[in-house]
Amino acid sequence: xxxxxxxxxxxxxxxxxxxxxxxxxxxxxxxxxxxxxxxxxxxxxxxxxxxxxxxxxxxxxxxxxxxxxxxxxxxxxxxxxxxxxxxxxxxxxxxxxxxxxxxxxxxxxxxxxxxxxxxxxxxxxxxxxxxxxxxxxxxxxxxxxxxxxxxxxxxxxxxxxxxxxxxxxxxxxxxxxxxxxxxxxxxxxxxxxxxxxxxxxxxxxxxxxxxxxxxxxxxxxxxxxxxxxxxxxxxxxxxxxxxxxxxxxxxxxxxxxxxxxxxxxxxxxxxxxxxxxxxxxxxxxxxxxxxxxxxxxxxxxxxxxxxxxxxxxxxxxxxxxxxxxxxxxxxxxxxxxxxxxxxxxxxxxxxxxxxxxxxxxxxxxxxxx
Length: 369
Prior knowledge:
By secondary structure, the protein is mostly helical. It contains 15 helices and 2 strands. It has a two-stranded antiparallel ribbon with strand order 1-2.
């Protein structure tokens, strides 16, 4: 056990990062291994798992925005003098580099001949690492804008988040490769185009930056109110805000059905963004409440939260492989029943946990995602 009394340590963020990394590992593992015949959304168990898996990325993005902007705003210095600017730029290049290396289209670093189009398409598709990298730059840019126009940064981030929500239905119907090169277009094209045979990404900047901007609002609040998270009022306020977003999404869905005659709740509707933000806020409320009850926090939780980037990279290499070696997906993709898949997911979580414990014993520190 390690003391949680370290100055300004926001304990509930450690808890939620550890929760998110476990959800991420089990989600990817089950998705790779579970047989198609068990993927039935009419099953309450599978539908709950499927819903929660869809929440993993919003949790990571929201928490990334919270932590980065919290640390950024702890330094009461002008933008250009804030050491977090340089750290943010370095993190941007690291995440971008890792994102592209994980999907490198060829075994040779310099021979790009005879690469099929689908490999190039996969290489250019934006994943969560590149999204977080862009989100870090965007958060710094919005902080700079807030400083220039002398407006509270919370309002600037709220405007950024709202813009992502409003623009989402519009950008979904624009094929950006008509206007820019593919390597840039995939930062805006969503998978709606990918399914139609055109390149798209699971994590286009719009609407996914919305979650980082929303987290940045919470990070700014925590930096300006460093003891707020230790109060009952804080967890209650998060819960109320979360419920408000969920209710707003449900009302919005009813309005959508009335106006256009159908619901796009789980595909291209802004209401999906609202319910995900609500879910993440409710989760933050729960962990903030639990953190108030903890005098100390298990060291293992801190280790999991501290090593999220390493866990992300390693478990993806194991499951999906790389141009240099084949992953689990190549041999056992969607071949197992429910119980075997759950057992293997637990094994993967155990392996990732053991890895960070061993690295800690060797005094090798890694970076959170």
